[in-house]
Write a structure and sequence with these properties.
Structural class: mainly alpha
Order of helices and strands: HHHHH
Largest sheet: none
Number of domains: 1
Number of helices: 5
Length: 84
Amino acid sequence: MTESVTDLTVREISRAAERVLGHAVNMSGDTDLARDLAVDSLTLMNIVMELEDTFDLSIPLDRLALVQTVGDLSALVSDLRMKA
């Protein structure tokens, strides 16, 4: 069985969140960052910086404002990776 790009991206988001939050997290594409993981804007920025390093890309703040779920963040990262 092969994993989709989205699955791999969600896994990397999970790893980044674990590094920033300091504990294991269980997430899926439907996981709401603020409600389910208690991620505030500063914590989200730290997760984004981890992802930028992991994927060697820059995530624009205006596009980040539209992110609510892990799936949203995964789609944004995937879109930016395809354009890079």
